[in-house]
């Protein structure tokens, strides 16, 4: 076990003893956890040499627990403590904004038991009704939930989806015609727990044989006629359910979730005299099955327009479907070019030509290359001379290939909000992305002012990865993103939906908020190699989860309109 894994377990000890009301023990665990985080050298080494108690804050009792963790990877006492509380509570403790007192009140007064309850309560503005909580607490709680969900063994969408698709292809090649990813993966959540697959087949045993024979399967966890679970070599757990073809649509609907969405679906079914489950939609009086094979049929029979999986989060989609006002969601095919790509000139792996050719092969109508600016030394930012030379290269390439290569730059937003090249140099470019890459720890007001200053620069066209978060690694910087959205909308600056799997920035919820505020989104990959141009589908998935339509997206525009947007920006 690593030092940080052990520290994490000690922090959990601290949280749970806190819930039990033992402040003294809480502080002791916390101190020990901090020491271990700051420790030079391996805790396991200290254990081997019998020196655990030389670590500041580690007494005999804690040393024994650490030794057990180092040697067995677990702690019996921690497991005992965990079992005293509903599992959701432990997860809730990890939300940075909620202390144990608040947690007890949220639980008692609003009945909140887990993260999803908490998310719904914040989204529906129920938390601000509690004394001592406000609008800001709800925002912070939602942010906290996003951070927690980026951790705890969850996989990034960008890692999970290719694995799931490869297994689905393996099943199809084995004669299984109807196969789909299900669960949060089908809804394109930014992180997912396990991979869920669903097959519709009247020969379930054959499908299961095929499933467990997938070459990357390391062990078969369980195997049955309707459900099997395997573990891949990298530890990823994959679940396959097989249902009769007549029930495939109902099962797909059921196993895609979300829980919140399905609760409402079942209620509507009951109101209309039906019963809905994973086998089908049945009339309550006669038991007759009226829909099951096709997912869309289930929605239609209930008087709803079919709801795209990305919207099924219990965020108003069912009401919208009933009133025929679902958004006509953006599709991957609507994207005409990628506006954020790095080349070998900074820290990318492909030349401008290789990127242009790859973009052309993908069917794009244009591509934008954006290397880092001079202050970002670790990423070999370009000097002004290099930048201007590359503008010429883009022009020549455009002529030679007959395919528009736009020359942009990903320019650092410096500490005072100024951009990292002089305006005269920026004016030579087709467009400018401004990004924060340094000094993340400013307070909210200073950081917001820094970005607002950048937005006021007439050369700025796009704000790159606007919150700066790295899923599971770094929370976004503290910024009033709504103020930024309003200013971006006013100034004609597009906000990026960066599809790099650990960024997904803006997030789904922020996309929706931005659209409601009249912001233009731009969907990018931030590719550092040609193969990463594929990440566009993750940006599209996130934007779809944010209810984005084609009209909300800058790079769904043809080139002349794109250029017009860049010209009027900052006006
Ligand atoms: Zn960047
Ligand atoms: Zn970048």
Number of domains: 5
The count of DSSP E runs of length 2 or more, i.e. the number of strands, is 17
Spatial shape: globular
β-strand percent reads 5-15%
Overall average pLDDT: 92
Distance between the termini: 56 Å
Quick one: CATH superfamily of the largest domain? Metal-dependent hydrolases
Number of helices: 24
Q: What are the low-pLDDT stretches, counting only 5+ consecutive residues below 50?
A: none
Q: Order of strands across the widest beta sheet?
A: 11-12-13-14-15-16-17
CATH class identity of the largest domain: Alpha Beta
Sheet with most strands: 7 strands, parallel
- Radius of gyration equals 26 Å
Kindly report the CATH topology of the largest domain.
TIM Barrel
The distinct ligands, each listed once, are: zinc ion
- CATH architecture designation of the largest domain: Alpha-Beta Barrel
**What class would the helix/strand composition place it in?**
alpha/beta
Quaternary: single chain
């Amino acid at each position: 076990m690593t030092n940080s894994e052990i520290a994490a377990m000690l922090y959990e000890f601290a949280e749970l003893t806190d819930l039990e009301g033992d402040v003294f023990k809480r502080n002791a665990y916390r101190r020990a956890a901090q020491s271990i985080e700051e420790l030079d050298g391996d805790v396991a080494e200290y254990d081997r040499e019998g020196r655990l108690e030389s670590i500041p804050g580690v007494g005999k009792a804690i040393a024994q627990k650490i030794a057990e963790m180092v040697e067995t990877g677990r702690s019996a006492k921690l497991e005992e403590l965990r079992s005293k509380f509903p599992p959701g509570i432990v997860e809730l403790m990890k939300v940075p904004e909620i202390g144990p007192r608040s947690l007890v009140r949220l639980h008692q007064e609003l009945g909140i038991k887990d993260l999803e309850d908490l998310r719904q309560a914040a989204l529906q503005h129920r938390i601000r009704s509690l004394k001592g909580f406000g609008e800001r607490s709800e925002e912070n709680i939602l942010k906290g939930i996003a951070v927690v969900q980026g951790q705890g063994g969850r996989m990034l969408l960008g890692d999970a989806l290719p694995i799931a698709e490869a297994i689905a292809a393996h099943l199809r090649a084995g004669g299984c015609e109807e196969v789909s990813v299900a669960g949060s993966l089908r809804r394109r959540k930014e992180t997912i727990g396990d991979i869920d697959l669903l097959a519709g087949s009247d020969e379930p045993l054959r499908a299961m044989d095929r499933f467990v024979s997938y070459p990357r399967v390391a062990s078969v966890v369980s195997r049955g006629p309707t459900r099997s679970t395997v573990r891949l070599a990298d530890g990823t757990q994959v679940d396959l359910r097989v249902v009769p073809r007549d029930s495939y649509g109902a099962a797909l609907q059921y196993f895609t979730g979300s829980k919140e969405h399905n609760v409402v679906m079942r209620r509507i079914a009951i109101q209309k005299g039906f019963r809905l489950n994973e086998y089908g939609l049945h009339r309550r009086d006669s038991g007759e099955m009226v829909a099951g094979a096709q997912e869309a049929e289930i929605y239609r029979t209930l008087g709803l327009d079919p709801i795209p999986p990305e919207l099924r989060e219990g965020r108003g989609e069912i009401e919208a479907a009933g009133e025929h006002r679902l958004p006509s969601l953006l599709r991957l095919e609507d994207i005409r070019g990628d506006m954020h790509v790095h080349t070998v000139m900074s820290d990318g792996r492909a030349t401008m030509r290789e990127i242009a050719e790859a973009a052309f092969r993908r069917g794009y109508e244009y591509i934008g290359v954006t290397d880092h600016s001079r202050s970002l030394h670790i990423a070999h930012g370009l000097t002004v001379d290099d930048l201007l030379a590359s503008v010429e290269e883009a022009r020549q390439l455009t002529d030679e290939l007959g395919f528009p290569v736009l020359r942009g730059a990903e320019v650092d937003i410096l500490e005072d909000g100024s951009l990292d090249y002089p305006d005269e140099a920026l004016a030579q470019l087709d467009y400018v992305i401004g990004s924060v890459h340094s000094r993340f720890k400013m307070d909210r007001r200073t950081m917001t002012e820094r970005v607002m200053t950048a937005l006021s620069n007439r050369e700025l066209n796009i704000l790159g990865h606007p919150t700066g978060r790295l899923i599971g690694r770094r929370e976004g910087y503290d910024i009033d993103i709504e103020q930024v959205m309003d200013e971006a909308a006013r100034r004609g600056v597009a906000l990026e939906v960066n599809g790099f799997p650990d960024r997904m920035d803006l997030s789904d919820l922020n996309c929706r908020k931005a659209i409601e505020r009249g912001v233009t989104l731009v969907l990018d990959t931030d590719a550092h190699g040609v193969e990463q141009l594929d990440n566009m589908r993750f940006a599209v998935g996130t934007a779809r989860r944010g209810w984005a339509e084609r009209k909300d997206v800058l790079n769904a525009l043809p080139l002349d309109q794109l250029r017009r947007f860049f010209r009027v920006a900052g006006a």
